[in-house]
Amino acid sequence: MKKQYKILISVLMLLIVIRIILPYVVLHYANKTLANMKGYYGHIEDIDLSIFRGAYIINDIYLNKVDNKSNLESPFFKAANIDLSVEWNAIFHGSIVGELEFDSPVLIFSKDKVELSDIKKDTVSFRKLLNNFMPLKVNRVEVNNGNLHYSDNTSKPKVDISLKHTHLLAVNLSNVINNTIELPSTVTANAVAYQGTFKFNMKLNALNEHPTFDLNAELKNTNLVLLNDFLKAYGNFDVNKGTFGLYSEMAAKGGMFKGYVKPIIKDLDVVGPEDKHDNFFNKVYEQIVGAAGVLLRNQKKDQVATKVKIEGDFNNPKTNTIDAIWEVLRNAFIQALLPSVDNEINLKSVNTEKPEEKKNLFQRIFKSKKDKDEKKNK
After folding, report:
1. Comparing 139-153, 215-229, 308-322, which segment has the lowest mean pLDDT?
2. Following DSSP, what letter does each residue of 68-79 receive, concatenated?
3. CB within 8 A of 253, min separation 6: which ones?
4. What interhelical angle do 2-35 and 116-133 show, nearest 10?
5. Per-residue pLDDT tens over the stretch 42-87
6. Rounded to 5 degrees, what are φ and ψ at 281?
7. Do 65 and 76 contact (CB within 8 A), yes or no?
8. Nearest to 304 by CA among 355, 262, 255, 250
9. Is 105 helix (H, G, I), strand (E, B) or coil?
10. Could you tell me if 100 and 84 are in contact, meaning their C-beta atoms sit under 8 angstroms apart?
């Protein structure tokens, strides 16, 4: 009996020691992984384990981008906490998957990293990082109080625009539940945007070979005056009054997509008292911008708007510029676009057959002759 007690006590002591040192082992591994990421450098302050919940919590993490030439670091991502755990609800459906919860994360895209290829590279690298920390396939992701930034320190004035107080919830990403329907996963998000609101809803099949989703998004009542630094930096003008809205729908299936983007500006007033100290040429330019806004304004709704239709495949997306110009004129002189999602795009709207290649005159002549010869041979 004494020997059995000694063994039991030894096992308990060993488990206690492992429990004490395990967070430090995991923290060392995590920081080593962050330090060895190509093009990035990061650090984690502390890690807490919750064995009963099957989880561990990363406290105070940051990840900076490192310039290859100068080795200077620029902020890319940080978060107060990241909770990585087993999703217990999925176990009742016969799957062992994980879930991620981010508390107060900040993601920053700077001017030199806004090309789609660069954003894709950053996203892939960030996903690889999370895969190193999460051994299970992720089925649920939640973001609380997140901030998404675009910054440009080279512009005059400097630009820093953001979506704040963002909440995002993505569920059933691994198709654990309702895996027989076409779009089993859902992603919803909302945020605050300069006294306005942003809402995003998407249904998707995250495991499909080709992107398959149906989404709609709306940005409402954004105060343009609060975006004057952005307008000055990239448009060389500011506004005295106005609100901005953006409405969009998009669907994709079989490598093809279809949708539209509908921007709407209401109550626009470009020239105001704040422009009295501007130079002569800038005043003239703003007068022209203001006059264009008046010319293209729908007088009844007091808004400038257009609706840009987008359709194509993911290797060759096309936007119809003529359609955009027509919609501006139609809104100005015929009827106003409604400030809302039109609910006209879904998976059935997507034409999965690629359009036939246009043939020149000689190709059409020889094809016609070839068809005639084939008919005679029959």
Report:
1. 308-322
2. TTT--EEEEEEE
3. 210, 212, 347, 350, 352
4. 170
5. 899 998 888 777 788 999 999 888 877 777 888 889 999 999 988 8
6. -65, -35
7. yes
8. 262
9. coil
10. yes
184 burial class (0-12, 13-18, 19+ CB within 10 angstroms)?
Answer: buried
| Number of helical (H) and strand (E) elements in the chain, helices listed first | 7, 15
> Among 120, 100, 101, 98, which residue's Cα sits nearest to residue 109?
120
Predicted pLDDT of residue 189 = 96
- Residue 146, Cα to own-chain centre: how many angstroms? 13
Gap between the Cα atoms of 298 and 112, Å rounded: 37
Instruction: Tell me if 65 sits within 8 A of 105, measured CB to CB.
Output: no
Which tens digit of pLDDT belongs to each residue from 289-299? 555 455 445 65
* Count of alpha carbons within 13 angstroms of residue 313, beta-carbon side: 9
* Eight-class DSSP state of 224: G
Count the Cβ atoms, other than its own, within 10 Å of residue 328.
Answer: 18
Mean pLDDT of the chain: 77
* Rounded-to-integer distance, Cα 378 and Cα 334, Å: 56
Q: Which two tokens stand for residue 98?
A: 């994980």
Q: What is the DSSP secondary structure assignment for residue 349, as one 8-state letter?
A: G
- Report residue 146 as tokens: 């997140």
Give the whole-angstrom CA distance, residue 80 versus residue 59.
Answer: 6
Instruction: Pick the more confident residue, 231 or 164.
Output: 164
Residue 31, pLDDT score:
87
